[in-house]
Amino acid sequence: MPADVWPQPVLDLLATGGDRPVFEDGPVVTTASEMAGLIRRVAAGLRSCGAGPGVGVTLDLPVTAAAFAATMAAFAVGARVSGWRADLSPAQLSGSLIVDSARLASFAEHPDDGLPLVAAGRAEDPARITWTSGSTGTPKGVVQTYAAMSAAWVPYPDRWPPAIAELATRMRRYLVFGSLASQVMLEYGVLALAAGGTLVVAPRPVFPDALVDHQATASVITVGKLHQLIRDQRANPVDLRHLGALMVSGSPLAPGRLAEALDVLGPVLFHGYGQTETSMIAMVTPAEMLTNPATLATVGRPAVDVSIRDGEIYVRTPTQASSYWQDPDESAEVFVDGWVRTRDLGELDADGYLRLLGRARDVIIVNAQLVHAGPVERALAADATVGEAYVVGCPDEMTGEAVHAFVVPVAGRTPDPDVLRTLVAAQVNDLAVPRTVTVLDRVPLAPSGKPDKRRLAQLRDGP
After folding, report:
1. Which residue intervals define the domain AMP-dependent synthetase/ligase in the entry (predicted)?
2. Strand runs (DSSP E) across 293-382, as ranges?
């Protein structure tokens, strides 16, 4: 196979890395050469169980050095790799070989022949199935082929977009947690390795404790956890001078909240935009936001082809997914003539920066008219008493659906529901005015770390 078939660049990097530390799990440090040998042994174990091109391998593993080796080994043998989810059906698992910690331990005992490991993936075969959070009802399996993964710029420093090149300088100690089946977690991990950094395990990813305990220089953080970190730093600040980068993931930040984060945490925020179906689309750096405050309202200049069609963002990139696993109808709706419909609304400004305007499908139907959640949330968040704002639609006997708002106040402030309703009426329209406004100490988060709008709908007060 060609030398650049995924994950060959990672295999080569580790095979030539010698004693360089690449993975740190408490007191246990794994060097590049040790990781390369572990990958070879696990690959042998996988092959002994029949894993290879076209065969599904599902990884049910915590974040460990062995789990990283298993991930790379499963790709190396050309398997269809996915992460375990308890809510997946037998059909979705499709008879995959399940690799848990016990089976992985047996694989690690296989002899190491010491020969270079050559990636065996076939270009058009599915390489990875990444399961979405299921926030719309049923998890969708996002399929990325070996051809797509092989086209990625992540392991190649000479291909990095400018924002990623700046980010890479701050990846000396990248905090990993949750699951390596997470597309974001793994891809930033490969970026850290390509930049000469070390992956550092956080068994308890509580911020800021994990950042301090592991002296992390970089980490991924969701918007919800970022808001909590900012509140904690204001109330009980800790020393985060070692921190170089927090990559904000999951949902866009309002400009005011982003400016606050930069003020409290320093020039460490990299505000990115991407989807499981596309990987990274754009990213704005701390330097850009501090130099040009107008970029606070954007997610940066796109690093991929972007087309705005009737206000909706379409994306095209060689690394994009090709379909949803066993879901031809949804695939046909999203993957259109070589483009991916993001179902996000946006616009490009005169300088080429991408501004997000809301979700095309995050809508509430009031009196048969669409109310987009994004503009309502931005209007609410513009009030000085509001730290976070979210809206959901709930059934209503009179209007079909009604808008219900949930706000987290700024410390020491008390939002006035009537003032907030007036603000929405003025900035959006009367249809968008929330029927109820509920004040919360903290927004509930889904397992993905994103605001859990299903739970918010269950929490709404009043009919």
Report:
1. 117-325
2. 301-302, 305-309, 312-316, 323-324, 335-336, 339-348, 354-359, 363-366, 369-372
Q: Which residue, chain included where needed, has tokens 């100690």?
A: 173
- At the topology level, CATH places domain 165-359 in Rossmann fold (3.40.50)
CATH architecture assignment, domain 8-145: 3-Layer(aba) Sandwich (3.40)
Convert 301-318 into a string of H (helix), E (strand) and C (coil).
EECCEEEEECCEEEEECC
Comparing CA positions, the residue from 191, 192, 238, 185 lying closest to residue 211 is: 238
β partners of residue 23: 30, 199
Residue 133 is predicted with a pLDDT of: 60
Q: Are 324 and 141 in contact (CB under 8 A)?
A: yes
Question: What percent of the chain has a predicted confidence (pLDDT) above 70?
Answer: 96
Four-way CATH pick for 363-459: 3.40.50.1820, 3.20.20.150, 1.10.10.10, 3.30.300.30? 3.30.300.30
- 165-359: same fold as 8-145? yes
- Structure tokens given for 215: 């002296």
Structural domain boundaries in the chain:
8-145, 165-359, 363-459
Per residue in 154-171, pLDDT (tens digit) is 999 999 999 999 999 999
Q: Is the pTM of this model over 0.70?
A: yes
